[in-house]
Specification:
The protein is an alpha+beta fold. It has two domains: 58 residues, no CATH class; 289 residues, Neuraminidase (6 Propeller). Helices cover 15% and strands 36% of the residues. A hairpin with a 4-residue loop joins strand 23 and strand 24. Helix 1 crosses helix 3.
Length: 363
Amino acid sequence: MISFKVLAIYIHNNGFSQNSGELLLRFDDIDHFMDGKKKKIILGISIGVIIFIFLNCIHLIWPEPSYELIPRDEAIPDDAVKISTETDQHPPTLETSFTSIYEDPIPMPGPINTAGAEDACFITPDGLQFFFWFTPDVNRPAGECVNDGSTGIYNTTWDGAAWAEPERAFLGWNVLDGCPTFFNDQLWFCSARNNNPMQMYIADHNGTDWVNFQRIQDILSQDYDIGELHITDSGNKIYFADVEEDGLDFNIYVTEKVGGVWQTPVSVDAVNTEACENQPFVSEDGTEMWFTRASTTEGTIGPPEVFRSVWTGSEWGTPEKVISSLAGEPTLDNDGNLYFVHHFWDDSSNSMLEADIYVCYRK
């Protein structure tokens, strides 16, 4: 029996023709021993066989592209320059009112930061797992990040003395994943996949791989662009930010789960302003809300800054600025250590160079 591969090569080189007697049954031969009815049957079978062979040989003639995971250090462009605290033109600054509580901001220690962009960070309350998003080049178009082998979600663990080398939380090909949050042993993340716009998914870890990807099939995916979120109150509340009608301003919302169903989100008016409030984090005890705020003027968004609001017992208090200058996406462990993303900006080229994770340790 001739193989599909040989047939595909032959057809690719010679095409379908009456001279392909070695491979295809010639219809003029049928006339010598078949009547009209049988000829129709054979013709139908022959056409079906040809279609079957063609469909099964497409991947041999035009094979599916192959992809491979690439380590972060190998994916970063050769001309990329690692920005240091000494060469940073806009270093993050701790507000004076918080210097008695926190140490000054420093780059997160360990093998986390590179000359690429580390962003969208999240630390588990026990301080033992850390998730973040990485891309090797902040100026690469989003479409080119899909299947580049390195852009995506990473996680690292604390062994009691140091952070381990981050590993890719691989969630499939032909997708673009980000904004990770980890709750009840499940990874929550936003993803553009299956030809759908960006939506929220959850995944389980079986000890080796991430499995059981499930899209959130409720109001949160249908009517809101929730992006970075934070889950609190034993999993019964979600804080997130949604873009307003102008496409520029973001405000923070909260939704509660009642009877297993997420309710219509409510604006957290105590922290929302005409500026852009985004990327909320709520402490595990529910007493502090941390978030990113950026001014919006003349159709542009200004430099992000980190703010904190304290729960008064009945409502969220007036937010206070904690860290200024290109700082955002705060996340804290139960010891009160503050982790956040810092973007490095070059004034001469008016462009972003890279991004790192920073930390302010609580005194």
